[in-house]
């Protein structure tokens, strides 16, 4: 059970309460919504590394209340320039075990190990967000994440479940085995009343501190970029320093669709935005015919989502 939160001055939601608390503290100290989002994003990357992190990427929508304008930032990952699709042949063994059921690739090269690593966009995306819409400095925005990294990630049942579900893959590589496992096994909370253990990430702590001092582009053009490219190359990956140096998160125009009395803004290109708009298009008429909480409405939603996600998996690569 999660407690409800009520506020007249802003709400921060994330997958970890301590990350949300970090963002709420930024708001309480006078920061704006983008400041809070950046602080939360970096902090949750420490506390829930299986879903977030500076090695990933994403998209951000920002609504400017005074002007009514919606801005979009694209900081999605990019394939390395040297990638050859022929190195990722389909195995014919059904779908991948990843979050998305893509057709399975030989040895899971597209989702596991150094050959699966694309150019990360997270760090530069946060730079673009702060420079264009934030009010706090880069270094200041990283401090909550640094404090969280220094304190360590508390191992609760959920952390044990997520790390345990990937233990086989984590055991393949010395660095991930050392970072997440204990003698090859997932860390576990105490079986009886007691203080939950913490997992410390000294290298991540060091990296975040360096980023705070050196600035975001060091991740792409400086010492961190060199270390990333070298380590990935040693493990058989193809991500290069040139790939990192050429990466730039960018402001893009969101796609807009009127839906009944509302207006929906989503990101363009390869993400779930266009999928959502297609689903809303399919649902506008059926949902108008049935009560919102009826079985017919739920069935219409399920059928629409099934159709648009099948189209996405077949046509969006």
From TrEMBL:
Pfam families: G_glu_transpept. PANTHER family: GLUTATHIONE HYDROLASE, GLUTATHIONE HYDROLASE PROENZYME. This is Gamma-glutamyltransferase. The lineage of its organism: unclassified sequences, metagenomes, ecological metagenomes.
């Amino acid at each position: 059970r999660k407690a409800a939160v009520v506020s007249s001055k802003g709400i921060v939601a994330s997958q970890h309460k301590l990350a949300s608390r970090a963002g709420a503290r930024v708001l309480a100290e006078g920061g704006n919504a983008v400041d809070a989002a950046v602080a939360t994003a970096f902090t949750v990357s420490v506390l829930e590394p299986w879903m977030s992190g500076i090695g990933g990427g994403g998209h951000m929508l920002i609504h400017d209340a005074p002007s009514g304008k919606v801005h979009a930032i694209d900081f999605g990952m990019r394939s390395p320039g040297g990638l050859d699709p022929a190195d990722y042949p389909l195995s014919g063994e059904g779908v991948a075990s990843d979050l998305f059921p893509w057709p399975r690739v030989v040895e899971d090269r597209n989702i596991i190990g150094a050959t699966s690593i694309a150019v990360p966009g997270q760090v530069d995306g946060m730079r673009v967000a702060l420079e264009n819409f934030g009010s706090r400095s880069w270094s200041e925005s990283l401090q909550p994440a640094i404090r969280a990294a220094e304190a360590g990630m508390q191992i609760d049942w959920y952390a044990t479940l997520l790390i345990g579900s990937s233990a086989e893959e984590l055991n393949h590589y010395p660095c991930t085995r050392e970072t997440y496992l204990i003698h090859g096994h997932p860390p576990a909370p105490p079986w009886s009343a007691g203080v939950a253990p913490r997992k410390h990430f000294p290298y991540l702590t060091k990296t975040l501190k360096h980023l705070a001092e050196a600035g975001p582009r060091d991740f792409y053009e400086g010492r961190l970029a060199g270390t990333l490219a070298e380590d990935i190359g040693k493990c058989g990956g193809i991500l290069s320093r040139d790939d990192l140096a050429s990466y730039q998160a960018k402001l893009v125009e969101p796609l807009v669709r009127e839906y009944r009395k509302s207006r929906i803004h989503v990101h363009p290109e390869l993400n779930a935005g266009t999928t959502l708009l297609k689903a809303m298009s399919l649902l506008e008429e059926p949902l108008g015919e049935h009560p919102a909480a009826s079985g017919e409405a739920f069935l219409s939603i399920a059928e629409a989502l099934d159709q648009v996600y099948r189209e996405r998996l077949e046509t969006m690569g």
